[in-house]
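--- STAGE predict ---
source: upstream dedup step, 1 unique chain passed
mode: sequence only
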Amino acid sequence: MNLDTPKRVAAPVPTLQDARHALRAFFGYGDFRGAQEAAITAVLAGRDVLVVMPTGGGKSICYQVPAAVLAGVTLVVSPLISLMKDQVDALAAVKLPATFINSSITASEIRHRLAAARRGDVKLLYVAPERFDSAQFRDALRELEVALLAVDEAHCISIWGHDFRPSYLRLGAVRAAFACPAIALTATATPRVRRDIVRYLRLRRPAQLVRGFDRRNLRWYVAAPRDEAEKAALLERLVRETSGSGIVYAATRKSVETVRRRLARLGIAVDAYHAGLADADRERVQEAFMAGTTRVVVATNAFGMGIDKPDVRLVVHYQTAGSLEAYYQEAGRAGRDGMPADCVLLHRYADRFTHEFLIDQSFPEPELVKRGHRALHEAAGPDGFLAAAPRALLGAVVGIGTARRADPVLRVLERAGAVRRHPPGARGPARVRLLALPERIRAELAGGDAEAELAFLRGLWKAAGGHALYRGTELQGSVLGALAGSFERARHLMEQLARRSFLEWIPPTPLRAWQVVLAPGRERIDWARESARRHAELEKLQRMQAYAYTPGCRRAHILRYFGDPAAMSRCDGCDNCLGGARAILPDVPTPAARSLAAPRRRRLSLRSPRA
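--- STAGE serialize ---
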């Protein structure tokens, strides 16, 4: 990816004292905490940095404060539209100018925001990693004075991270194009993931700061109900006997709705949150929870990004999480006010089968992918565009029309470049053909207001390769926009020139959503990487199981997994270390208090999972 050489910001280097002043002025904090000071010191010294701090640890301060004091714009890569909006809204509230560019805004609004960044009116510009696939956006970056590149949720670059995003792999080329420092941030990264972040982001001798996984106010508990009925009864008791807000995580939408109905029958102010809800409903649920109107949210892992509610006293995983990274991040939404909070895993071995099924569905067999590719290719028109949604086509022709089966096939084909999904508002090329000879053009456009038209024509001539413009050529809208300053301006000039019979043109038409780019047999799918990703997911599930079954300190188990040097052999905040001395929940026996014969007793109890 060639961005040429972006502008290097030439300005006095801010000091740590400048950063402290910005921290107080914009965020109201008296001083830095955790790894913040070390990270900001390294950034101001021009060093690359990798920051691993738990959810709620204040990672965003590590790049937002430097953005406030550095000359130029800080480019922030963020994977979620909702997270970008939350961050920009929060920065607007403290008068630190920030904006975002993603598929939720129009092309003209994107140009407006980039122009504001060029003028220096924006200090932080949030973008999705997929945005760098656009040649037009990469061209626009050459005009920006980028002072810092920040990559949030950096674990997404590794197949061993809990939320791998292939688009993150291309960020290494983006980072290599900038002379400014880069900072990568994540809440959950094992030593293996940290090595991948440094390698794939091409960080240059980064300062690696791993801090704060040991949150002493959180108490860790694993219960093993005998069956689903006992699990449901135990959840009801946990919610009734815990004050404050709570989050219950379930593995599937069906489980979410089932648990919500059960808690609602108890008179608890509860709501459900999952990807199947409309955007307005998800926003309503989140706002009600943050305001305290809803006491408990039952959710899939779609809930939580950007949630910073301080008084969550209970986080329950109704089924085992798919990885220890995901479990720690979700459980870490408890107790952000520093007060005691409980993180309870209701574990049954059968939960593993659900995750294994989901993993198998996410990594389709090669033959299924090939059949799907052939079906899409045969259904596409001469230009490769699909007249119907690909999921429906796959269902009709191959029998894999459900989202659970069709979407993984499409993702594999997308990664291989065999199919392409065009963003909303994307347009194809314009067709342009020059009609008049140069002598006539010069004679009729000499002087006056026509100078802009003449300059535009010279640009068209150069972009089309000279005399090829007489035969007719296709030019992308981004090229026309660059020649005229904006696509709207280019359209106006083209219409003026067409009225004078200097040229004829066919405006670009909106692209349909999906296009088949490569014929079957021409795609190059990296099946070795697909297999490695599947193996990584299964291994992470196995490590999650090991946490549930460990007889030792659960806190130490988590800390060792993330490579935190604070790991100890015992604590006073998990069921295994508490033994029978102090129950996390009143009157509920801990696993150590149960004898070998106790599981057959009928009363509701908690017991440790056993092989």
